[in-house]
Amino acid sequence: xxxxxxxxPDLPSGKxxxxxxxxxxxILTRGEGREEGPPRCDVIARGPAAPLGCARRPSxxxxxxxxxxPRHLLAATVAAxxxxxxxxxxxxxxxxxxxxxxxxPPGRPSSRSxxxxxxxxxxxxxxxxxxxxxxxxxxxxxxxxxxxxxLPAVPGLGPAAAAAAEEKEEDGGAAKECDKPCANxxxxxxxxGQCECQPGWVGDQCQHCGxxxxxxxxxxYVTDGPGNYKxxxxxxxxxxxxxxxxxxxxxxxxxxxxxxxxLYVYDGDSIYAPLLAAFSGLIVPEKDSNETVPEVVxxxxxxxxxxxxxxxxxLTGFNITYNFNMCPNxxxxxxxxxxxxxxxxxxxxxxxxxxxxxxxxxxxxxxCGAPERGFCNFNDTKACVCSAGWQGPGCSIPVPANRSFxxxxxxxxxxxxxxSHKTIIHNNKMWIVGGYVFNHSDSQKVLxxxxxxxEWLPLNNxxxxxxxxxxxxxxxxxxxxxMYGGKIxxxxxxxxxxxxxxxxxxxxxxxxxxxxxxxxxxxxxAHIVTLEDESVVMLVIFGHCPLYGYISNVQEYNLATxxxxxxxxxxxxxxxxxxxxxxxxxxxxxxxxxxxxxxFSANKYKLADDxxxxxxxxxxxxxxxxxxFFRYLHTAVIMSGTMLVFxxxxxxxxxxxxxxKCFSSDFMAYDMACNTWSVLPRPGLHHDVNRFxxxxxxxxxxxxxxxxxxxxxxxxxxxxxxxxxxxxxxxTACMHAGPGVRCVWDPARPGCVPWEMATLQQxxxxxxxxxxxxxxDNEKCDQITDCYSCTANTxxxxxxxxxxxxxxxxxxxxxxxxxxxxxxxxxxxxxHCNKRxxxxxxxxxxxxxxxxxxxxxxxxxxxxxxxxxHLVSNSCLKITNAKENYDHAKLSCRSSGASLASLTTQKxxxxxxxxxxxxxxxxxxxxxxxxxxxINVSYWCWEDMSPFTNTLLQWLPDxxxxxxxxxxxAEPSSQGLKAATCINEVNGSVCERAANxxxxxxxxxxxxRTMCGECTSGSSECMWCSNMKQCVDSNAYVASFPYGxxxxxxxxxxxxxxxxxxxxxxxxxxEQPGCGWCTDPSNxxxxxxxxxxxxxxxxxxxxxxxxxxxxxxxLNVSMCLEEHNYNWSFIQCxxxxxxxxxxxxxxxxxxxxxNLTTGKHCETCISGYxxxxxxxxxxxxCKCNGHASVCNTNTGKCFCxxxxxxxxxxxxxxxxxxxxxNPLKGTCYYTLLIDYQxxxxxxxxxxxxxxxxxxxxTPEEQNRDLDMFINASKNFNLNITWATSxxxxxxxxxxxxxxxxxNIKEYKxxxxxxxxxxxxxxxxxxxVYVSNFTWPIxxxxxxxxxxxxxxxxxxxxxxxxxxxxxxxxxxxVWKIKxxxxxxxxxxxxxxxxxQMASRPFASINVALETDEEPPDLIxxxxxxxxxxxALEPCFGNKxxxxxxFVRLPRGVGGIPPPGQSGLAxxxxxxxxxxxxxxxxxxxSGAIRxxxxxxxxxxxxxx
Length: 1502
Known about the structure:
Layout: E1 45-46, E2 101-102, H1 111-126, H2 137-150, H3 159-170, E3 187-188, E4 195-196, E5 201-202, E6 208-209, E7 212-215, E8 219-223, E9 234-240, E10 247-255, E11 262-266, E12 275-279, E13 295-298, E14 302-308, E15 317-324, E16 335-340, E17 345-350, E18 354-355, E19 361-362, E20 374-377, E21 383-386, E22 390-391, E23 397-398, E24 405-409, E25 422-426, E26 429-433, E27 446-450, E28 455-456, E29 469-470, E30 473-477, E31 480-484, E32 487-488, E33 498-502, E34 507-511, E35 514-515, E36 525-530, E37 536-541, E38 544-545, E39 549-550, E40 554-558, E41 563-566, E42 570-571, E43 581-585, E44 590-601, E45 604-615, E46 620-623, E47 635-639, E48 642-648, E49 664-671, E50 676-680, E51 695-699, E52 702-706, E53 717-721, H4 731-735, E54 743-746, E55 751-754, H5 760-768, H6 778-782, H7 787-791, E56 797-800, E57 803-806, E58 817-818, H8 839-843, E59 848-851, E60 856-859, E61 870-872, E62 875-884, H9 886-895, E63 899-900, H10 906-919, E64 929-934, E65 940-942, E66 966-969, E67 977-980, E68 986-994, H11 1012-1016, E69 1022-1025, ...
Parallel strand pairs: 1-2, 7-9, 35-41, 42-46, 83-89, 87-89
Antiparallel strand pairs: 3-4, 5-6, 8-15, 9-14, 10-13, 10-15, 11-12, 11-14, 16-17, 18-19, 20-21, 22-23, 24-53, 25-26, 26-27, 27-28, 29-32, 30-31, 31-33, 33-34, 36-37, 37-40, 38-39, 40-41, 43-44, 44-45, 45-46, 47-48, 48-49, 49-50, 51-52, 52-53, 54-55, 56-57, 56-58, 59-60, 61-62, 62-68, 63-68, 64-65, ...
């Protein structure tokens, strides 16, 4: 047994069970089990002959256990290392080793290395096998010889043992060790290197629970294993003791995913026993001084624990200790455990000043301040009796209180614990109605608590006449309590019933109100208020409706008229939810709603921290400052201008919850005057008071909190007494009171008074003194998508056409900011769409449509009907004002794709009448045609051929007249129809056409799906709870089962059997916590699965007609009698599991599987047969129509062996892939085209069963031979036949064989058109059968028909035509290229000239000095042409740069200015494209020299 009293076999002596946060201490071998990386080597391998691995030391040294670390970090220690690449298939992968290799020096290996290599080679040739510890044979053999001499002297050992040691030495390499240590009693299998786990443990290290356990020791522990638990876990523990002994379970550590992963504790040996607790979330003491660790008590002598986790997040799990016959928490160390002779049970005898079952509640602290403040009553109540003027713990707080304090009273009456109940105060009594209880069949529906005497009051049995429900609402009016909605505990249905409880008579009466529209809701709230018109109404706020999703409306019930209605509200568009807090403030006449569990579309849901205010008179919503504390199923009360919020579920169902607890004791205050939140200290009690689903009421300025849920159902009462304003004597202390209370100084008294007693002037002064608002949260404004919510809030937002932004930001120039709600456009009903969270609620609004892909309600486009058209339901309507007769009006409508309107629905009639009433004020009143005409003497019908019923629209008095054939609306009223001849002209007409949006039909709501298959089919929008037999929306799972009622859920087409009898194997049977296995006497493992407990089968009564389960399941041992050799298994399956197809030998081994079965447990059919042979099932032959010999052994789907045949029974051809034929009478063929080559590559995994493929080809030309060839990558058999038509291929025996070959890879042949007479057999068909090949294979095949001789004339004509055409094309291309080149050069030259011309040149006459007289530079002419000093041609010789010397003007005397020579070099760009004179060329040496210079860059003169 792996569980011992307080010690595990895996632990050193004296150590207790493993603590969460670390692995259990295990003996590790050096080099293994390290988390930092692969194991290190003990020996460094050197040289080229070093082994590729680590040689392990022979001794295993114990190492200290790894240090404790958070369990979420331990997941890495259980991950299996991947196998090394390169090992052979079917062989166990070698373990990874870290090897440090020292490379040898370059050159030849040493002689020692060569000798070592030769020895290894010789050893391999001799077949010697050496283990990993071998380091050379001679020293080890000497050691073995010494051992052989010593072994005979050791008692009990002899030559046989020595031989075994020798064999182990030589065969040591065959044994494999586990890479990681096996936990929880698992053993390493040497053959496989895998851990073999003890029953109930799974995982590669046996580190996860995964089965059933039976614990019989008087004390021990229960754990899911080290590290995080795995996904989809189901584990069950049965703790067995003596009958009627008391078992105590203490939860030392517990961490699971809140609301999804639960541990259920039952007081008995099955899940049919009373449920004690449903643990989920984080359960650890919040502070060191708080010692309240949850403890569960079972009194039956048994306890069954069942753990289920889903496929989402997995946390660290739990560690639970248990003890029989021990005092609670061992008396907390503040008392002695003694036997009570009267009850024969162990009880704590507490020390002084301590009380409670576990001596964990202090009393009379500071001795009650005796004698001044009070004294201690040590006898009865064990509490302080305070003197007048003192109160609180230890009588330490004066009256009135100058500071707040908490007190707690615990009550142990069995029928008190509950959650999601509701409470009201009436005449000093607290009335508690309904609530969720673990065992609803025996529950008290109504409780009453006297707040004066602090006692529970006895009530008449008539209070139990209604069904138990939770999540309902209560509202008090005079002496009547109104209870509405809620979830019926017995059936799981959400109710729309309204019950009235009369307090004096203590009796229930069901009201029968008239309702046009009404929602059945759960998780809502209700308040009875008196409106301005003195009418008394009950307002029902939000809630969840299974059919319509989360409701964002306000429902109103009028007590006087007994009618329901859904209010049309104004202001912000708020989002409704489940489990919010709601409180009515009579001074502001407003309801304040905070938090809740909300869905923002069908697949987006989360907790909320919103705060809304609803004005009951103006019906206007306002968004106030959010709290930043997300929660649901919390409570709130209003006291002295402050809303106090306590507790709730704070887990946000995401990986980002950062350990947020399911159960909270957060205490917050909202200051209604300044619109601010503050966090108050949590209750400073000795016990944890975390909870959700509790109730809170206000009485005499004290908040009373009752019940709730923290994995256990609670029955205690918490009292919070705040500081009182009257306790502050000066104005400064009064104004600074709080947080948690708002006080005002009244100078008239003078004195400090609470907020509700202040005058308007005093309240206004407080508002002026409120702290300045912090920086605006831009994100809050950005989240708002409509103008109404953007302006009706206190977050300083403004609306800019289509977005909400902060007041500190500015709209764009073309946008006009809107800051007041009254200025928002009121004609956009599409804003409401995203508040609807189900298809059914979305379909109720004509401006919205459901988007099934994203599971959300979206607004229809504004122009879906077009200009001047209006969307009414699924139709577009338009009223024209043209004066025309009926036929012309009909044609006018038809030109717009419409027809005259058939006003057959209420919405159409209301719209038309409303529009006509608007137009009455205009000068031209409309009396439009409608699509109503008379088709015979007495029959009127609409244009859509539906009959006129005279209900929605009615005739005017004395209508219709005999002269009337067509109808029009003479007056804008429902009785305004008038008849006229169809040729009369009237003003206007009403046209109608279908809206162009597709109004998709909603699927059946999840709540109306009663079977799992119907619930989970299609998409994941629904979830099926197997034990509750309920289908719920995926966004409402938490709202549907807030207290862990659902033990296992399914989605996406995965469904379990309806009950235990649907499981055919013992292993599957015992996976369900409520099932057991009864084995029959046949010794073949055959049996049946049935509802059961550890002691035997149980009989579960069927629900009665009323839906209540009248009886609890009872033990029925006769269903599996041991006297008749039946065997009942509840913890582990029997070893014999042959499914009824073989006798068991040695109680576990199947001797010989019969009935066409095979497998270790005869659990599958043999090849060629299919079926479910488990538990006596039968196998039947595969039905494959001769095209397969093997099928799926479970489903019978055939693995067809011929390519192109498909179907479960190989009954169809793949027509979509060009295969045709009839596999029922013949086979399928691929149709080949003539003169094409086809390649078939059968290499995919789906092709592995193919061994044959068939082809068919028909000649296209009757005067040409048919050639064929085929080749393949592997050998195959070939058969070719022919027939006069393809129809012959569908029936055997009508084909004529032509070719038959076996074991070939290639074949070619030609079929003569004369021999096979293609001309007289126009439909001749050749069949090719390729068979007996192996997968994978590649096949190529082709049929072709070529001419018998070559037409030379045609060849040469074709050749020269192509050649000349090619030459012509080449010439054209060359010409185009030349033209493009010349054009590009001209453009380049022009650019160069333009570039050079842009230089600063000037015109000047130049004359060089000669022997002659100088010329007249002013007016004379130059006689000779100056000669250039250089002429630099550009690329292409079209232009050149000409350079000459220039003499600059000189001063008096012809002397240049000082420092200058008077000479300059001038350049000009000249055109040299004209032929230069020969004489000039000869005289110009520059040109000759220039030709020998390197050519200039193309396109440039530089």
